[in-house]
């Protein structure tokens, strides 16, 4: 099986190029599952703080995956022929998160665009 969900960790801080919907959403699912796993482990070993909602392992994992998540998000936006700066729209409450989710779900541009060749065809 192709380990496409691990590509953003292999391309740890690569903000150039394009990422397909499959690569983005499989990575998102991978991060979500591992984050839940670390949250459960934090509860079991007693490092989870119920007031803040964070644990030691979950916090460490969040720091480790922050750069690859931003990088794959930027590459996903590049795949829809948008600049990575669109990622900052998440700072607009509610509407920003909805809009960035819509942008991440959009179909890739067919063929090449200003950010590179289509990742599906390469």
Unreliable stretches (pLDDT < 50, length at least 5) are none
The SS-based structural class is mainly alpha
Strands of the largest sheet, in order across it?
A: 1-2
SSE order in H/E notation? HHEEHH
Could you please describe the fold and organization of this structure?
This protein is mainly α and 122 residues long. The chain has one domain (12-105). The chain contains four helices and two strands; from the N terminus they run ααββαα. A two-stranded antiparallel ribbon has the order 1-2. Strand 1 and strand 2 form a beta hairpin. Helix 2 runs antiparallel to helix 3 (56-79). The two termini are 17 Å apart. 18% of the residues are buried.
Key phrases:
122 residues; mainly alpha; two-stranded antiparallel sheet; 4 helices; 2 strands; elongated
């Amino acid at each position: 099986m192709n380990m496409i969900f691990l590509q953003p960790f292999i391309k740890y801080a690569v903000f150039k190029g394009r990422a397909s919907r499959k690569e983005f959403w499989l990575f998102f699912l991978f991060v979500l599952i591992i984050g839940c796993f670390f949250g459960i482990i934090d509860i079991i070993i007693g490092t989870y703080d119920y007031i803040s909602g964070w644990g030691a392992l979950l916090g460490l994992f969040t720091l480790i995956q922050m750069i690859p998540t931003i990088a794959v998000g930027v590459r996903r936006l590049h795949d829809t022929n948008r600049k990575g700066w669109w990622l900052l729209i998440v700072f607009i409450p509610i509407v920003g998160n909805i809009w960035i989710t819509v942008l991440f779900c959009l179909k890739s541009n067919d063929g090449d665009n200003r950010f590179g060749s289509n990742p599906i065809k390469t």
